[in-house]
Amino acid sequence: MTQRVLLAEPRGFCAGVEMAIKALTWMVRVFEPPIYCYHEIVHNAAVVGVFERAGVIFVDDISEVPKGSVVMLSAHGSAPEVVGAADTFAAVMVDAVCPLVTKVHHEVKRAAAKGFDILYVGHEGHDEALGAVAQAPDAVTLVDPDRGLDEFVADDPAKVALLAQTTLGMYEWEGVLDDARSRYEAIKTSRKSDLCYATTNRQSAVERLAEDATLILVVGSENSSNTQALVRVARNAGVEAHRIDGPDDIQDEWLDGHETIGVTAGASAPDQRVQSVIDRINPSRGVDLVRVTKEDEYFPLPPALRKLIHTLQALVEGAYACRTPGRPGPVDQDRDWGATEALQLLGV
Ligand code: SF4
Question: Given ligand 1 and candidates 39, 101, 128, 202, which is best to mutate, with the most ligand atoms within 8 Å of its CB?
């Protein structure tokens, strides 16, 4: 029987996901459905399901969005053509791209403008990689971390830049970085890598869990890159690990013989799911928090949404269920509420 659960801290929602969920919550509270969202707002089946039930239609092709619609673009970042098209035909368009993804887009554009061959380390077909490569498609080569650099030939070995998807495994990034440095002495790369704080913190926490746990369960969806990276980090540390969307995915035999089980969650997984997983494990000696750092990052709502809501504030006040008399609404005090509360507002 399992005696202890070690619960990773930090885990679950990052600042970019918090911002994106709250932004889409505002959209469904302010506008009549349907609201269109280009790509899944975040890569989590439960979160996407909540918004679908609230009237959001997710599309992978911006041309599927009818003219004059209300449109949100996902946290993963979009190609300039997608942003431009949405801006042109949507009645309202809000881009919920995470600022840390935007930072990489700027790096891509700057390096391309200076004539660099850009190696972008990322997973083929992932929404974030699609958006980043599209910033300068003629200058960027997508490098899958599993395949490495063998297929790449630089036009000018002195002008090669190495950038990355924010949600890679640290070991994936470091493997390609070492190889690239050995091939191109003058390689240009970000000072601290493009992996975001949430990615690296969650992976560090998993490494800490792996010191004591013999099984690690990672809550998150199949298409969540950072969730998959957490599973690989755990397995690289020699620990059995499984990705699960929630408690129903746990197979009884997984738990057999494990006195200490580590639990964590990818950056887009709701904490309610984590709590249900702990309930399902039902450890006899309870839960110990394993904290590697305290996160206090906060990203404000997208500027277009802030402007829109300020304009509509007088109309919205009466309808916004989260407001309490005498307390300013979330646009004025956006730090006072979180994505978990936003999802509860939608009836999770
Ligand atoms: S994982 Fe990192 S880059 Fe992605 S949304 Fe969260 S903070 Fe932004």
Answer: 101
